[in-house]
Amino acid sequence: MAIRDWPAAERPREKLIELGAEALSDAELLAIFLRVGVVGKSAVDLARDLLTQFGSLNAIFSANEQALSQVHGIGSSKYVQLQAIFEMSRRALSEQLQQKDVFESPQQVHDYLCLKLGGLSREVFLVLFLDTQNRLLASEEMFSGTLMQTSVYPREVLKRAMHHNAAAVIFAHNHPSGIAKQSQADELITKQLKQALALVDVKVLDHFIVAGNQTMSFVERGLL
To answer: What is the DSSP code string of the chain?
Structure first.
């Protein structure tokens, strides 16, 4: 049955207008973006197929064009539109973090880090550079690869902190394995970075590990 034949209260667009976007499931939100389904499947059915295949919205957004195009009904134009929506979401959150203390809205920090890192298949080390009021100055992906295989150089982080005239930093890196738990290597590099940045009076406020839609805080675990 086509979505237009559903009861009005169950149609994603009408439901959004009536109840707000937060009332919709991931599949319903994705269906609004897709607009139409394929033969034998509504847009909601197609959205559910995508979520089943990729596992999450983050993974869909992070998938490359080739992977998405293998799904019947998804072509290059949808890939381009998804990437545009994804980037706009990240920029909107970044703007919010630039305007106020990042600790006033921990959910925004969580959402931003998950959007930046949650769906990546490779490990990336991200640094958030903050001013004296803990507002975001810049966000930079500084190293790629596991912390065991690709060195995180404290001197490079130090140089970028001085470049941005940062008063504090927050570290974040993802675990593509899906497990938001620190390793000994994670703890060691955090300690080394903290010691290096202390030499120029730059504070390390936290280190987050991102796994899909989950984050783990070193501060909350008493590790920093």
So the answer is: --GGGS-GGGSHHHHHHHH-GGGS-HHHHHHHHH---BTTB-HHHHHHHHHHHHSSHHHHHHS-HHHHHTSTT--HHHHHHHHHHHHHHHHHHHHHHHHS-GGG-HHHHHHHHHHHHTT-SS-EEEEEEE-TTS-EEEEEEEEES-TTTS---HHHHHHHHHHTT-SEEEEEEE-TTS-----HHHHHHHHHHHHHHHTTT-EEEEEEEEETTEEEETTTTT--
What is the pLDDT, as a whole number, of residue 10?
A: 64
35 residue type, one letter:
R
pLDDT tens for residues 62-118? 888 888 888 877 888 888 888 888 888 888 888 888 888 887 878 888 888 988 888
Q: Is residue 168 predicted with pLDDT exceeding 50?
A: yes
pTM strictly above 0.85? no
Name the amino acid, one letter, at 181. Answer: K
Q: What is the CATH number of the domain that holds 134?
A: 3.40.140.10
Number of structural domains found in the chain: 2
Domain of 114 in residue numbering reads as: 102-217
Residue 56 main-chain phi, psi, to 5 deg = -165, 165
The mean-pLDDT minimum among 71-80, 123-132, 161-170 falls in 71-80
